[in-house]
Each structure stands twice: as C-alpha cells, then as structure tokens.
Specification:
- The protein is an all-alpha fold.
- The protein has a domain of 30 residues.
- It contains 2 helices and no strands.
- The chain is elongated and about 45 Å long.
- The N and C termini lie far apart (33 Å).
C-alpha cells in the first residue's frame, strides 16, 4: 500500500465512526438524555 493511500485510510478511520462505535454513541446519548447516569461505566471497567 502506498504511503498516500495509507494516510488517506488513517484519516478516514479517524474521522468516520465504525458501525460499532455508532451504536455505542447512540446508547450513551440515550442514557444521558434519559438521565440514567448509573448505567454509565468508567472506561477502566470496559
């Protein structure tokens, strides 16, 4: 893979969410919106 293509791939991975990241973000948004903060976990627990 060329350096330029690798840079583009790295950039896209940094900018766009994966499907899994999107689902997790939506879950966190819902928890915060409904003020269910006790359901949030610290990153150390994940």
């Amino acid at each position: 893979m060329s350096v330029t293509k690798r840079k583009v791939m790295d950039f896209l991975e940094d900018v766009f969410l994966t499907a899994e990241e999107y689902v997790l973000l939506k879950e966190v948004d819902e928890i915060i919106r409904e003020k269910r903060f006790n359901e949030l976990k610290s990153l150390d627990e994940v």
